[in-house]
Amino acid sequence: MSQLFCGSNDHGHNRRLFLQGGMASALGVSLGGMHASYDPLWAEELRKQQKHVLLLWLAGGSSQMETWDPKPGRPTGGPFKSIPTAATGVHICELLPKMAKLMNRVAVVRSLDTRVGDHGGATKLVETGRGREPGVDYPELGTVIGKELAQRESKVPDYVSLYLATEGHRRPNPGFLGGRYAALHLNKSLKPENIELPTGLTEVEHSEREALRRFLSDRFDSIRKASKVKGYNSSYARVQGLMDSSSLFDLEREPRKQRDRYGMTDFGQHALIARRLIEAGVPMVKVARAWWDSHADNFESHRELVSELDHVMSTLLLDLEERGLLENTLVITLSEFGRTPNINKDVGRDHFASAWSCSFTGCGIQGGTLHGKTDEDGRTVADGKVGAGEVLATIYQAVGIDPEKKYHIGPRPVPLAPEHVVPIHTVLA
Description:
The protein is α/β, with parallel strands linked by helices. It folds into 3 domains: 1-49, no CATH class; 57-191 and 251-427, Alkaline Phosphatase, subunit A, CATH 3.40.720; 193-249, no CATH class. Helix content is 35%, strand content 15%. It contains 11 helices and 16 strands.
């Protein structure tokens, strides 16, 4: 929170708002938007300055050839053309015409070499920056972002993961940070489970019970000073915050025009929920779209998938921009790996981790830039090779987190990004 207070008169006023909010919290008054103590001025200040990360996870491995790094006219290129974009000299696949108009806001990395080609191992590598290591369970990107960017007084979740597909399903892993920082993982429905009041219990009765629980807990803690009590209180506060935030997942509260704008597909509606969560102050949201694993009929499947990505991503970026959120929200497209330049006998592309692409837009990013390149057939990285560690370091740097910051596993210091990696400075603002 210290970055909010620079000593100016305006920030002095905001500090007073913060202290007022802290006093309200100390008195046991919820700061959720449904309560009288909610201060819109303070909420607006947080909304303006809070950094966020929104990860569009293309589960299964999207093809760089049919998205960010086309090779038209080459034996590996496939049937689709490349098209010019709003970024001078940058061409992308013709399946992305809407994103082509927005490429002056986007940075693309075309030189990822991550080497791991199985879904589980590759996902672990890309989301932690590290391979499997005996004795150490590293937290994934979303967990770290949620921990580092969460506002102290916020009642919304730190990290929400939306993955309602059956294919390639994987539960987010908080690693050694533990369950306190685990994602709110939605894999069955868009509505979090078990947050409704029991039948017959009114809001007033619930509030009275919570006040009594807090009173007894505080009295016990004043006598025993038990760390477990603080942990229980923190858990109760998080559950209460989730209950207060349940409306964020209710798209019936969104105008039908806005829902139609995103498209009435699962991916479109999940992206809209992600925007709602970002606007409410959630630091990290992951929206997964399956299933890009195109071992057969790659071109037909990508014609559908990339066209949907084009619509949803462009709509999301414009919506965030219109709401003044894009400058503080880093939007990423990322997979566990790319697809082979070679086209197999089933007209598919297989797993390929040696020369593939991702994109960054928004907070901390220099739009209209490219980093790295592949050879003319897309088989190898020709310039600017980077790995998963560099991607994570770039994400952290873009949102103001020091990639060299260290956590500790007992006495052992562990940096957020692997040692000896640096951010991809060519894409950073």
